[in-house]
Write a structure and sequence with these properties.
The chain is α/β, with parallel strands linked by helices and about 400 residues long. The chain folds into 2 domains: about 260 residues, FAD/NAD(P)-binding domain; about 140 residues, D-Amino Acid Oxidase, subunit A, domain 2 (D-Amino Acid Oxidase, Chain A, domain 2). Helices cover about 25% and strands about 25% of the residues. It contains 7 helices and 19 strands. Helix 1 crosses helix 7, helix 2 packs across helix 5 and helix 2 packs across helix 7.
Length: about 400
């Protein structure tokens, strides 16, 4: 083995968008940072659709997570501008809004329940009838019978986001070791870096495990602090709207069709992202005929013209799911080891706030108040396993939350 000559302040294991934003923000705070990943900028971001859907993806029981999602959504315009300036690259951020629609009476009842929950949480969502939905998006099927217009749920392009973060990290002085981290190094009762597959030892005062769904597979992590993260498979399709056509859709459109969720995310470059399945299939990333069929079938019922578009790409990726679907952000019980993982379906949305939270923890030792409900320690003995729900917000503000960490 050979050691890196000078120890780092921080080694980040994982070069996806969460690992990259952690390293970038830490480097901006003056910390000497390294990222260990064989292919930084790849990972789940290459598959994700990039919906910033804090309001339209609200789920009962996840009101505390809603507060974190809203905080990150509010940061996005400034975050995008800062990152684009730092990298000299566009990240495809679009303030276009989202329309969630219903295709039958059962879907409409489910959407009405979501709207009631949104109103109880003080969120801005407007109920529309079917005709109003089709006026906004003429390509919708005649059978659409109602919908929710959410002007604050936007989108970005995760591939461009990852590429820009990679460039911003390089310009900020982050060192990249394009190797696979194989084992956590410890001395006494403290994490001291990682050993890579090629024999390199990356020594650091603090190690951040940000390897997405693979975060629980690093050897050498004591069992009591192994992150409870599992892979959740998602299949996604990409289609192309011919350049001579008028815009196919003007905003993100989503629906529940026969109990299955489907969304269509239009890019300004003519790409249309269609997704996504949610499958508990372990580490399998096979694109299946059944998955492709179900997505196209449901999307066709929602937007009949979609079957005339060229299919350009089929992909499957792994979301990092946690027991309560919320991220794990901050210090573990092992000194020197921190986590930034478990973002499940909200990794792209939570990128800005994750970078800010991790930079503060790395420089001060303490998370900001709004991140304390999401501490990795909530899953260890003696701690509550699930964050408490937040009370209702007033006047459209983010719900008040107890202090936690992710």
């Amino acid at each position: 083995m050979h050691a890196v000559a000078k120890p780092y302040d921080v080694v980040v294991v994982g070069g996806g968008i969460i690992g990259l934003v952690t390293a970038w923000r830490a480097a901006q705070r003056g910390l000497r940072c390294a990222v260990a990943d064989p292919a930084p900028g790849r990972g789940a971001a290459q598959v994700a659709a990039g919906m910033l859907a804090a309001v339209s993806e609200l789920t009962p029981g996840e009101e505390t997570l809603l507060g974190l999602n809203l905080a990150s959504a509010r940061r996005y315009p400034q975050f995008a501008a800062e990152l684009e300036e730092a990298a000299g690259q566009d990240i495809g951020f679009r303030a276009c809004g989202t329309l969630a629609v219903a295709l039958d009476a059962d879907d409409r009842a489910q959407l009405r329940e979501l709207h009631a929950l949104q109103e109880r949480c003080g969120l801005d969502a407007q109920w529309l009838n079917g005709r109003e939905c089709r006026r906004l998006e003429p390509m919708l099927a005649p059978g659409v019978c109602g919908g929710l217009r959410v002007e604050g749920d936007h989108q970005t392009d995760p591939r461009r986001l990852a590429a820009a973060l990679l460039t911003a990290c390089e310009r900020a002085g982050v060192a990249f070791h394009r190797v696979r981290a194989e084992r956590l190094l410890c001395h006494g009762d403290r994490a001291t870096g990682v050993a890579a597959a090629d024999g390199t030892r990356l020594s650091a005062d603090r190690t951040v495990l940000a390897a997405g769904s693979f975060s629980g597979r690093l050897a050498g992590v004591p069992p009591e602090v192994v992150p409870p993260v599992r892979p959740v498979k998602g299949q996604v399709l990409r289609l192309r709207v011919p350049g001579t056509h008028a815009p196919f859709l003007s905003r993100t459109v989503r629906a529940v069709v026969r109990g299955g969720h489907v969304y269509l995310v239009p890019r300004e470059n003519g790409e249309l992202v269609l997704g996504a399945t949610s499958e508990e299939m372990g580490w399998d990333t096979t694109v299946t005929a059944g998955g492709v069929y179900e997505l196209l079938r449901d999307a066709h019922e929602l937007v009949p013209g979609i079957t005339e578009l060229p299919l350009t790409e089929t992909l499957a990726g792994l979301r990092p799911g946690s027991p309560d679907n919320a991220p794990l952000l901050g210090a573990t019980e092992l000194p020197g080891l921190l986590l930034a993982t478990g973002h499940h379906r909200n990794g792209v949305l939570l990128t800005p706030v994750t970078g800010d939270v991790m930079a503060q923890v790395l420089t001060t030792g303490e998370p900001p108040a709004h991140a304390r409900p999401f501490s990795p320690r909530r899953f260890t003995a003696g701690h509550s396993s699930v964050p408490s729900p937040a009370p209702r917000a007033a006047d459209g503000e983010a719900p008040a939350r107890q202090e936690l960490s992710a």
